[in-house]
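idk why but the lab printer keeps eating my pages so im just putting this in chat instead. protein + 5-amino-5-deoxy-1-O-phosphono-D-mannitol:
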Amino acid sequence: MGRPAPGTLTVMCGIVGYVGAKPALSVVIDGLRRLEYRGYDSAGVAVLADDKLATAKRAGKLANLEAALAERSWPESSVGLGHTRWATHGPPNDPNAHPHVDCTGSVAVVHNGIIENFAALRTWLEGRGHELTSETDTEVVAHLLEEELHEAGGLAEAMRRICARLEGAFTLVAVHSEDPETVVGARRNSPLVVGRGDGENFLASDVAAFIAHTRQAVELGQDQVVELYRDRIAVTDFHGSPAPAREYHVDWDASAAEKGGYEYFMLKEIAEQPRAVAETLLGRVGEDGTLTLDEMRLSDDELRDIDKIVIVACGTAYHAGLIAKYAIEHWCRIPCEVELASEFRYRDPILDRSTLVIAISQSGETLDTLMAVNYAREQRSRVLAICNVNGSTIPRASDAVLYTHAGPEVGVAATKTFLTQLVACNLVGLYLAQVRGTKYGDEVIAVIHQLAAMPEKVEQVLGTVAPVRALAGSLADAKCVLFLGRHVGYPVALEGALKLKELAYMHAEAFAAGELKHGPIALIEDGLPVVVVVPPKRGRGPLHEKIVSNIQEIRARGARTIVIAEEGDDSVVGYADTLIAVPQAPTLLQPLVSTVPLQVFACELALAKGHDVDRPRNLAKSVTVE
Ligand code: M6R
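predcted complex ->
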């Protein structure tokens, strides 16, 4: 097999490290189970015992590794690490699984990210007689550590030295049998967080891995190396100088990251949406009755200077941005562009100090979005992050942050975090309108009251989705589903189609209903399911009647129409093969209710096809490679 091009065998994965009195192997496996949403192409562990390194790794889900572990006895150990992998290219087989070891079998390393110069390093290592047995970029790290350990006098110093030679984004965690008391980690543009316990410490890609043991976390900065011992941690930069690290308390407990009686996380997370919306709204109105965003960190003067807003995001977060544009432009009268983060910096966008860039990211780790943030800051624009994960990379790279309070989202498909992103975008839009005076205080508060009514409406949707389940079951064999919407209903349609693609692996496409006659209507044929999101009748001018005409047009051509419209909207009854009624809501807030049946639809259709909705094929929760 030919050698892959640089960066083609990289991973965005889940990493766990442990030092303490508990059996390391079970702590690591338990942590990996909680991180499996990050990647499930392969899994592996390494533990240190009796000055020896023991490793195991297997392609496929964690269960395969657990079966392999059960086949032999394992030494008692209090130091270990583990990995779940998401491979971008190349076979997710046993040799490519992590950990990777050096030639002596004394160093084991796991990695998340891309070592961009790995091909050159590999050639250099092979020239020095190292035998590399996998196709990954990661393996060079094990051999580089082997080289440096001769001189460095310890794993941490060897790690610092090799990090200076690596290009790209990476989290690395390693153990060395001659340093039996420690696990060493390093990070650059890739997540790694420390869990500080009592007589034990943890390293992980995400606090979910150690939340059952401790809720004290330590944030690592860029280009830092951490040494983990039972009773202390030491953080330095890549040159060995002590580095500051912020400690914080994780404000949710282990049960939040467990299924709590649901068969899938996704089902639980859909059900949690009313609470997630309510929590994101909590405490936003100050004693003086005005909207207050404590974390905003941008002064009112800075916000008044803004003459353009650019929203950057990926996937579902991008759809939240598309919806936000309508509210922000309407309330604030500032031009607002929405751009896929992966395209943003490559088109030479026009940015300056008076541009506000809003980066929306559930995980706060999406590399495309992070790179867009870095680019915007280089152009001296101000950056506000909307994020769900405290202390993650994107908020830290931004000037300001507004956290959504959805709690941990484990299912790969974004659900509750989407709704909370919509709420957060509304709050930002209202805050700007308040500061810039484009809305009176009482108008701002009136919308806040409308938002405050949304959790109950979402709850109502959840209580009436049984017919959506039945509908999904009847469409399990459909080849394709189309989605139509207008105004904010268009991004809702996009989100509905994305959910169906990622969960049910079906062809699904969304169109702005007004575009139908410009081409897509040719797709309509007998029995084709078409989901139509209908805006409220009271809303924007003739929008409602136009979409009712669109429904008639597709029905006349044989489409099976599935219509989402608000309760009491009789005008669509005659044209809907299936009518899904959602509670009445203001036009700009309707996505908070109209998205929910689409999430349920995609989830149930995927379940009807026998898919794992928490871990759809080929996907991972945090996309930490470009
Ligand atoms: O963590 P982020 O919000 O930055 O993630 C962005 C996308 O990768 C994410 O929304 C993705 O599209 C979801 N799997 C969709 O359900």
